[in-house]
Amino acid sequence: MSTSAHTPRSLLVTGGAGFIGSHLVRHLLAAHRDVRVVTLDALTYAGNPMNLADVQAAHGGRHRLVQGDICDGALVARLLAEHAVDTIVHLAAESHVDRSIDGPLAFVRTNVLGTATLLDAARRAWAGRADVRFHHVSTDEVYGSLGADGRFREDTPYDPSSPYSASKAGSDHLVRAWGRTYGLPVTITNCSNNYGPYQYPEKLIPLMVLNALSGRPLPVYGDGQQIRDWLYVQDHCEAIWLAATRGRPGETYNVGGDNQPTNLTIVKTLCHILDELVPLPTHESYEKLIRFVQDRPGHDRRYAMDIRKIAQELGWRPKETLETGLLKTVKWYLDHPEWVRSVHSQGDYTGWLEKNYANRSQSVP
Ligand code: NAD
Ligand code: DAU
């Protein structure tokens, strides 16, 4: 299968102060000495300049962090022109499903309107050029939920369940429309659940680690038998780079870790890692903190990605195993208390869970 090579020189990475974006910026500045990067990030609760502090120290001459909103078309147009940007990697988004249940409109604004604003600025700035690329970072959640069998393929029909996933589905459609209508060279990756350092502790894995360390309950939604396809964030960054530089314009590539444990298995595994690394004085397991709580509304039951297309066309495979990745991740949170403090100073998110928490809670049998 033929691929289409694109050589970025000047990149605009949106959402680069967030979890995945900061790993991507670090990865590409370290691996590609001839690229420059402008990070555009609104620095919402999820964006943290500390995520890029080491990048700034190591590669400050080739990296600039601009605080700004992707919905600001004039700002985006100015950055594209001033920095002669030839590649946009778009990650900026409202990313947390629970928050989208509480306040969906912020998701529609950033994820749908923000994506359209970027696409249109790119179309105008690049007018007909082929030596440019708009790469959109999306999610497996656009496909909805799987039953007992099967995996999501790139041609699986969209069937999103949450305001978050519906807004990401909308953004994917916009990207394809700008590709087909205006000839904008676009690529999309739809990826499964990421984990690793710098993930905001509203998401399952860091929330469980930090709650356990402070003796707080570990809230497992519903019966904990939901399945996600976990991928170490560094593997995702390599897939994004490959798709943006060697993927065929107009194509979508599914990315996943080929790991499908239940949520309860993930939580128990984290407890066992902590039992080893930071044993409780009573020698009990952190599992004693597990509580089953009311399920998330519209909760998708199972995700699993078919990654044959990106493997065959671009030679990508995940490198990290779930076992080694989880251990590295827990150790990172233990070793970075100053980062944890900086994140907690913005206040913990409790959201709809807090409202329902009292209704149903029971420790693991
Ligand atoms: P994150 O919440 O950690 O980071 C999002 C970043 O976007 C933050 O830095 C935030 O400040 C910034 N942002 C939000 N609104 C903005 C706006 N209006 N203008 C400019 N910047 C804004 O999210 P993440 O987990 O790093 O996810 C990054 C992208 O990858 C998202 O598009 C998400 O949908 C997608 N994705 C995430 C996962 C995952 O498991 N985390 C999996 C697949 C795809
Ligand atoms: O699949 C990719 C998606 O993964 C990304 O597009 C999203 O941006 C990212 O947030 C993530 O979405 P999830 O909803 O799957 O992630 P979260 O970490 O919130 O939840 C993972 C699973 O764990 C999910 O089934 C809900 C469950 N859960 C989550 C939390 C926060 C719990 O049981 N308890 C919790 O406290």
Word description of this protein:
The N and C termini lie far apart (52 Å). With 365 residues, the chain is an alpha/beta fold. The chain has 13 helices and twelve strands. Helix 6 links the parallel strand 5 and strand 6. It is globular. 2'deoxy-thymidine-5'-diphospho-alpha-D-glucose binds next to helix 7 and strand 8.
Main sheet characteristics? 7 strands, parallel
**Helical content class:** 40-55%
Coarse morphology: globular
Structure summary, number of beta strands = 12
Approximate strand percentage: 5-15%
* Unreliable sequence segments: 355-365
What is the count of helical runs? 13
Mean pLDDT: 94
Order of strands across the widest beta sheet?
3-2-1-4-5-6-10
Distance between the termini: 52 Å
Bound molecules: nicotinamide-adenine-dinucleotide, 2'deoxy-thymidine-5'-diphospho-alpha-D-glucose
- Alpha-carbon Rg, integer: 20 Å
- Secondary-structure element order, N to C: EHEHEHEHHEHEEHEEHEHEHHHHE
Structural class: alpha/beta
